[in-house]
Amino acid sequence: MNEELEKYVREHSDPEGDYLYRLYRATNIYLLHGRMASGHLQGRLLKMIVRMIRPKNILEVGTFSGYSAICLAEGLDEGGKVYTFEINDEQEDFTRPWIEGSHLADKIEFIIGDAIQEAPKLGVVFDMAFIDGDKRTYIETYEMAMKVVRKGGFILADNTLWDGHVTDPAYDKDQQTIGIRRFNDYIANDKRAEKVILPLRDGLTLIRIK
Predict the structure, then answer these.
(1) Which are the contacts of 197, defined by CB distance < 8 A and separation ≥ 6?
(2) What secondary structure does DSSP assign to the chain, as a single string?
(3) Stated pTM of the model
(4) pLDDT score of 35 more than 80
């Protein structure tokens, strides 16, 4: 989409709200690679998907600035919880105040650590997972999610088009691109799940565990 059409889409979707607007702005001012945050349109989609699926427990891998965790929490029913993992401990000083300052703080458990190792230790059965961490370990993260998300549950994987690099030979040696390509091929051939890639923003794959 061109810039004009993107603006039209945003104007005809629900607003992100003042708190998320300020968080997204601060993310882009103070953090490297600020565009990694989900942003307005994808944030509204995440909230809508949660409203549709109505999960009780959500696992997020890759908190970054906390934008997507808050969007996921917005869609939860009373008693629902988002468990969000961030492996980069240097991220905590920025992210924790934004999560704890949100009116949804009681619905978000922010954990510093490797989700692949630590999430199964929680003993929680998840209804949904959102994968948005290290692209080089997407397959390993997915396999972990397959063990902790219930049958019939959903897994969402972000950045699966990777700025179009997945089809660009210029990125054949880039490890992040290789990781995404491997993941996409792996999911396409996984008979345990139904899947579809949405060409929204940087690519979002919706996966349902059979």
Answers:
(1) 160, 161, 184, 203, 204, 205, 206
(2) --HHHHHHHHHTS----HHHHHHHHHHHHHSTTGGGS-HHHHHHHHHHHHHHH--SEEEEE--TTSHHHHHHHHTPPTT-EEEEEES-GGGHHHHHHHHHTSTTGGGEEEEES-HHHHGGGG-PPEEEEEE-S-GGGHHHHHHHHHHHEEEEEEEEEE-SSGGGGGG-GGGTT-HHHHHHHHHHHHHHT-TTEEEEEE-STT-EEEEEE-
(3) 0.95
(4) no
Q: Are 115 and 147 in contact (CB under 8 A)?
A: no
Q: pLDDT tens-digit profile of 170-182?
A: 999 999 999 999 9
User: Is residue 36 very low, low, confident or very high in pLDDT (cuts 50, 70, 90)?
Assistant: confident
Size of the chain in residues: 210
